[in-house]
User: What shape does this take?
Amino acid sequence: MIDKPLTVQSDRTMLLDVHSPSSDACRADIIAFSDLVKSPEHVHTYRISQLSLWNAISSGLSADEILSRLGKWSRYEIDPRIEFFITDQSERYGDFILTELDDEYLLLTVRRPVFALQLKAETALRELLIPESASSFRVLRMNRGVLKARMIKLGFPVDDRIPLKKGLPLDIRLKDSFTPRPYQKDAVKALLGDGSEGTGYGTIVLPCGSGKTIAGILAMSQLSTRTLILCPNVTAVHQWIRELLDKTELTENEVGEYSGERKDMKPVTVCTYQIITWRPDTDSDYPRFSLFRDGGWGFIIYDEVHMLPAPVFRITAELQAIHRLGLTATLVREDGREDEVFSLVGPKRYDTPWSELEAQGFIAKAWCHEIRLPLPEDLEVSYAIAKKREKYRIAAENPLKIGAAERIIRAHEGESILIIGQYLEQLEAFREKFGYPIITGSTPTRRRDELYAMFRSGEVKVLIVSKVANSAIDLPDASVAIQISGTFGSRQEEAQRLGRILRPKNRDSHFYTLVSEYTEEEEFAQNRQKFLSEQGYSYTIEKDCGDAE
Assistant: This one.
């Protein structure tokens, strides 16, 4: 008798018993059409949504196959409403089909006449659609991505059947000494498939510290085409370049940096979102968008795609014809634009629980601690009369955090420690107290790289960093992070900061968050921790009296 570890509930959530012998096989079957919501110790929760179903259908999975998988693993009979939702949403995905018409226009065909009437009535689509017949519209090629993004907002997913174009070829070979991990290979296989229609674009979700960059490099080697890589900051640009030169046979003449410091266009070009979205003033166009159009690119990688700036969404809409990959540890966007990532970059192709990679030793085991401190008496009155945003800052900059951080550093003497904060004055206060080097947005790139290198080598054991170090920074030996303040309740930031200490090493990692008790900071801390709790991380909560020593 087959083991059935899944409970499918009427609200479209699914509970997976991870202690079941069949849990891994079940997870592999359901992740294609659901989203992992949380994965604590015993039961993991998945959710079936419109977007998760459209992800699955766009990747070639049928409603019948989805229902078959649910029937195979569910302990109980599936609620008929679940079956209807899956069938209905799957059918809806095929209601709007985009195909080629001529050199200038694409053709949007609408399967149901009533939907054609609805499209004509939508003001957001009026400027994009030119009636061709009662059930079809012409669409300018340049509006391909914009149309898909706007239609998904209306609940009308577009089945884009236009084949991807080949970019200029480039021989990208992996070095013999480099061996990708099994899950990195699986992720790229899910992205590229068999090369048929509907494959070759999408998003890979992997935990911080698990080697998302390597997955991107592996995809590059299989596509072997000119590649543009977009990153959140210059440090990440340099990291990509180091990894490319270390893991592939590409030479320095083939890998270029396009940033505020250098403007080298090469067959593989790595640049920042900031340099792409620069413009002389708010009324001007974006002059560097031509980088996208004129490079002969066959592949574009969006590193930390959850940070994709709004202006880049616009130009991304013009890049629907080539292979594209989004890399992220979480598709959570605080602005709620996950659906735009789906329609412009591509559907989620691969996701794996953080706890699973931790259990396999691919990321470090991490212990999370919340340290609560009292607010000093001399700040109580100013806190009480302050506005909400001011309250948070007063609590975040609690001066007793310096003493708490000192005790944590002493407890982890000899380890590589990051002190991470939001407010520059607070970070400077820590620098003045301890004398540790500091990296902020105003630190020159060369100096940042020097300090990161000194930290990696062990010459610097404690580094103070602002939010510039939240993402895409490879500091493999960091085993302790002390978060002294953050961007309000950002779950995304919490995940990124924990990721700084998740590179596998010979010791467990510790993530400390210092919080002023009985203040606004407590509420924001709970929201920030929510994402990590859902990934299986638990927080111990400790009180620190805040006494100076």
